[in-house]
Amino acid sequence: MNKLIITIGLFLSFGIYSDEPLNRGTTDGAFTTLMLAAPDIDKYVDTLKSNTSAFSATGATDAGVCITRSGNEYAGQMMVWSAFPSVEAALVGSLKYDPQQAPASFAQLREPKYGVTWKAAKPWRLDPGYERVQRVNVPTDKLQDFVDAMTALEKAIIEAGHSDFFNGVFIPIGGGTHEAQTLMVRSATPDASSFGKLFDEYFDGEASWADEWLSLQAVGGTILSDNFEECEQTFSAN
Description:
Helices cover 34% and strands 31% of the residues. The protein has nine helices and eight strands. The longest helix has 17 residues, at 143-159.
């Protein structure tokens, strides 16, 4: 049986839980993302901000963009994300807007790559910032251990004084070959400076959270990609 089927089966049947000590997010709802290339990213983002009809049409509660700042696979790499109250709402919403049939004002500004729906396996808060994004292949029998280790690392980093840091772990649904057999891990801080301080702390041997980091590595898994993204919210239904 395909590893992805096993992973999602475990998630749906038994539940991936997280002992979230700080109650700083939720696993409720779902996200969709549209990966794309934009020759003029600033112009495209400005257009999204001035015309939110597509987000309203899909029933998204919130939406925004993430611009790839490091580890780009192609020029103009970015994504548009939308938040929904459930996986059902996300899947239904994706049928209400076809990116290939977008108005000319949008179509000429970007080239769609692919879309995917995501379900959080660990509590996540909607607070876009400067985010390290990794695609990770985790052994199926280690999925819960991985989520627990990510939660422990987050707690240790927060207790070390980085109160705005948080981790997310997301399971892909319908991502084609692009996202098969992977988890998306997002580690977020408010800005690049905050993230840089974490790296300096670790490389200077001053990270009190180093043991939690090593415990995460011991769980196993293979990193397939590693990027930095700058994210922001551009739409809210409220």
